[in-house]
């Protein structure tokens, strides 16, 4: 579905653009994802819209088939990349699960701000972005997914999320389409 509108109170939520995540091998160059996300951040800040920067500091407990440790990540792993130009007005969410809502203050923060729509970007498409989008949809938020401002460690997982899952959770579009819509609705 093409982008149709942005609610008056739309928040930008950037998922896991931090040193330890952007260093992982991903399908699309991480630097391109960071650059597109930075452009979105600049535009949202310029229009006085809420910005949320999400980072992950540990994995959820429990056994998995991939055998990854669920303990804390190494020092520096969770540092947000400098290109995001974190501002004092940005709300930072630190998560220990895939989704940004679980056991965090994200839902309360968005409600306090009167947010009715979120725009999502970041890494990884099929993990943090999709989990956050699912929860947001269940909360009744309008969800917009900027598909060229996200990537994954697995090409099939990325494609599945974008082509099969996201159209059922919200509207999808590119960075430029979102920026154009933002400028046209806030002019």
Automatic annotation (TrEMBL):
Coiled-coil region list: none
E.C. numbers = 3.-.-.-
Recorded GO MF terms? hydrolase activity
User: Where do the Isochorismatase-like domain residues begin and end?
Assistant: 10-177
Per UniProt, the keywords (alphabetical) are: Hydrolase
The organism sits in which domain of life? Bacteria
Family matches, as PANTHER family: ISOCHORISMATASE FAMILY PROTEIN YECD (PTHR43540:SF7), PEROXYUREIDOACRYLATE/UREIDOACRYLATE AMIDOHYDROLASE-RELATED (PTHR43540)
List the protein's name: Isochorismatase family protein YecD
Q: Which species is this record about?
A: Paraburkholderia metrosideri
**Designated gene of the protein:** yecD
């Amino acid at each position: 579905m093409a982008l149709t509108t942005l609610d008056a109170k739309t928040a930008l939520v950037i998922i896991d653009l931090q040193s330890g995540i952007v260093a992982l091998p991903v399908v699309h160059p991480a630097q391109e994802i960071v650059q597109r996300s930075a452009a979105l951040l600049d535009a949202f800040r310029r229009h006085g819209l809420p910005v949320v920067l999400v980072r992950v500091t540990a994995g959820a407990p429990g056994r998995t088939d991939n055998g990854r440790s669920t303990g804390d990540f190494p020092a520096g792993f969770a540092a947000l990349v400098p290109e995001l130009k974190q501002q004092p007005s940005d709300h930072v969410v630190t998560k220990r699960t895939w989704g940004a809502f679980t056991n965090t203050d994200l839902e309360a923060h968005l409600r306090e701000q009167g947010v009715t729509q979120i725009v999502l970007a970041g890494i990884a498409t099929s993990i943090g972005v999709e989990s956050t989008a699912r929860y947001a949809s269940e909360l009744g938020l309008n969800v917009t997914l900027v598909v060229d401002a996200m990537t994954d460690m697995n090409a099939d997982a990325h494609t599945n999320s974008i082509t099969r899952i996201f159209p059922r959770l919200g509207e999808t579009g590119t960075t430029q389409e979102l920026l154009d819509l933002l400028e046209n609705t806030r002019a």
